[in-house]
Design a protein that fits this description.
binds xylulose-1,5-bisphosphate; alpha/beta; 2 domains; 6 strands; binds magnesium ion; 43% helix; Rossmann fold; single chain; six-stranded parallel β-sheet; DNA polymerase, domain 1; 250 residues
Length: 250
């Protein structure tokens, strides 16, 4: 029986990477007088690393004008990351980023059926707060009762720490829950925690391979829509993955 649905945030709930974090990183560079800018393609390359701070440090390795000493790069990454998260919250506040198709519907279905809703993400808590308040209002914490973020699970995906902690806090076994992801790193993390995982591909991972996914599709509303009943059937293993796939899982 499906007792909990555990959501990834970035790329799964909304297209936050291209339209949110990337733009906010560029605003942070500008604030510090840096000429660095991350275009859509370069940001996609950096996404192989999870964690915004980690992404900054990776990028600095390729920049001649980045600080020479590791401690200086660390300090700069920390400063940029704080500014980026503030800029991201502002960006959400001002214009918002729409939920991906089917997200609001499926959340409503789970609430009506008493299926617990949880979050397991490598993003900072402030980013979840900003996005979820914009999508579900100030009462969002009454909807998502378990929220595991980077501050709770510092060992980031593809490590399963965030999912393992979410399961522990939910008090449900891995076999009673399902994860929803958009990226290969997220899928590996969910599977390593023993969870079945459905994938709705986000723009940056449209051509990635998702071996081990229960199903892979463009979004939750792509026909046939991924309903709660279909999720329950996924967990029961009673449907072929391809029946609910836009792209067959390998
Ligand atoms: C999300 C991330 C995060 C976000 C930015 O991965 O890797 O780093 O890009 O958030 P996932 P922070 O969707 O797999 O959880 O800057 O707070 O890290
Ligand atoms: Mg993601």
């Amino acid at each position: 029986m499906l007792r909990a649905l555990i959501w990834d945030v970035d790329g799964t709930v909304a297209e936050t990477e291209r339209d949110g974090h990337r733009i906010a990183f560029n605003q942070a560079f500008e604030q510090l007088g840096l000429t660095w800018r991350w275009d859509v393609v370069h940001y996609g390359e950096l996404l192989k690393v999870t964690g915004g701070r980690e992404r900054l440090l990776l990028d600095m390795l390729t920049r001649a004008d980045a600080p020479a000493e590791a401690w200086q790069r660390d300090q700069l990454a920390g400063d940029l990351h704080r500014r980026k998260n503030l800029a991201y919250a502002r960006l959400i506040d001002e214009g918002g980023i729409a939920a991906r198709p089917g997200v609001l519907r499926l959340v409503d279905e789970c609430r009506a059926a008493g299926v617990a809703l949880a979050v397991a993400t490598t993003t900072s808590r402030s980013n979840v707060e900003a996005l979820f308040a914009s999508l579900w209002g100030p009462g969002w914490q009454g909807i998502f009762t378990t929220v595991v973020c980077a501050e709770d699970a510092p060992v980031k995906k593809p490590h399963p720490q965030a999912y393992l902690l979410a399961l522990q806090r939910l008090g449900v076994a891995a076999g009673e829950a399902l994860a929803l992801e958009d990226s290969p790193n997220g899928l590996v993390a969910a599977r390593a925690a023993g969870l079945a995982c459905g994938v709705t591909k986000s723009v940056y991972f449209a051509h990635a391979s998702f071996d081990g996914a229960a199903w892979v599709r463009d979004d939750l509303d792509a026909p046939p829509a991924m309903t709660l009943a279909a999720l329950q059937a996924t967990l029961a293993g009673s449907i072929e993955p391809s029946r609910h796939s836009s792209t067959p899982a390998a």
